[in-house]
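Reopening closed ticket. The problem is back. First fold of the pair:
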Amino acid sequence: MKNTIKHSIFIIILILAYSKYSCMANETNVSEGDSKSLIKVNATVDKAKITIGDKITYKIIVDSPEEIEVMFPETGDKIGEFTAVDFGDEELKRDEGRITLEWWYTLETYTTGSYIIPAINVKHKRKDEEEIREAKTPEIFIEVVSILDENASDIRDIKPPVSLNKNYYRLYLIIAITLGVLGIVGAIILFLYRRKHSRKIDFVPEPLPAHEIAYNELENLKALNLISKGRIKEHYYGLSNIVRHYIENRFRLMAPERTTEEFLTEMAITDKLEEKHKQLIRNFLEHCDLVKYAKYGPNNQEIEGAFNSAKTLVDETREVLEPVPAYTRTGRRMARPSGKVAV
């Protein structure tokens, strides 16, 4: 018994020590030249031990010179075993030619255990160069425990048997009457339904093809006038989502659920797209990511060009449709108002 207690205390001390070490602000320095060009990358959490369902605030803090352009880390909806339910970024301060940027994520999980928030790649480059470099955040240890009391028993005592009334005649009679009434009501409803719909021709409208959905969404986005309201990043988020969902609906490529890098890797090996369209999509998504994640401010010509690229992709890859005849229940051919099929 004493050995068990000592072993438990030892494990708890190890967990607390590792948690404290993991939550410390670690730094990754990437030398870009002299001492003023160091990139410092830290990662922190507000809690290293949580109960299941609790939320964690995970922060990535980057300190860099003003001539370095830092890009928003691409993490998707999952960071390790945690789900990102919210995220954002802000500029903390500027001091002596350096900028401190912060990206924060609200994470949660519904499974217990010991987890590690993995290292995140932070891409950056000099504004006057094209070469992109990377710096990694440190890993952070998180312990997720159950909300149940550790001393609570999962198995409870069996309740004593309950005495039942052995006179089942009345119960059987009630059940029989209920079933009889339900049967009569059901038969009446079925009869009325069949009489009403016996000569009605069923027609189910077909779903809109992918290009029509994309055209409608592009028109709706344009009608919002987000650019004139100064909401450029929101405009690019909407435009990127329209193209990603069009690619998924048209070519069955899972674009919305993946980061740009993951999707471009899959797109490079698919034969569903021509090379010119692959290049068009690649240039479009990389331009959108600069605006969404790197705080790049596009000019009016670039904004209009991005919108036109999205429309050109839909125009050149849309399905070719032709009318298909429909038939009545008697087998006679009849005109079908909007039925179409892809060829």
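Second fold of the pair, where the issue appears:
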Amino acid sequence: MRITTFWKKVRRAFFLLLLLANHFAQSQTPRKPDVITLRDATKLEVLIQEVDENVVKYKKLTDPEGPLFSVRKTEIASIKYGNGDVETFEAVLEVPGYYAPNAPKASAPAPSSTAVTPKARFQEELQAATPDRLRAVYKYYKGKSKGGMIMGIAGTSAGILVAAIGTGIVASATDANGNFKSYQDEKRAIRGAWMMIGGFAGAVTFGTVGFVKAGKNGSKATRVRRELVKRNEPITFRISPAFNPVNGYAHLALSLQF
């Protein structure tokens, strides 16, 4: 009878924990994106980080923890901030350095009717980047992927370990007939049950976040690697000095990784 009452308390506590987690998730309102409208009618939904005198720095909406990008104010027609404020920018007339009467006027590109997906935009940025920039981006996403993998493995392992300890405490608090040996054992069993719930919840939460982060950044690192291989550029290179004591010659060794 006491065991039945105890497990009812555990189930109530578990449902209460789920309700609190659901309330916490719904109470958090994400930041609304900022919309940058370029002079060619292209719209960028981003998270603006800093506005300088000549440059607007932002991060992608799909990758808020990723690298920082920038666009010149001369290329921007207007900015609609997440709080509803709108800022417009006047066009700057550039005076040419020479007069070419027969030069045809370049027509502005027609705005695309279809929205560009984040994956396609990321690929376009890779194709326009320099090899040094690609190597830096590859190193960044590779490190983020490893960090996510470590977080997933460590979080899952720690959560399972805590849950296992809690299970052992609950099992040791009962006798051969399944009854509590004493009131102190019942209190120990309650603490063990909380450890079971917290361990499983932690394993699922940190494991899911870590592995998703590892997969997402690993996929981006793979695409950067393919672009470097396509250009026949090394992913990493290292120059190290070397000395031959036999003939007394010193030289530099170049190590490339493709």
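Update: turned out to be a display glitch only; the data is intact. Confidence is low (pLDDT under 50) at residues 95-101, 251-256. The longest strand covers residues 43-51. Please close again.
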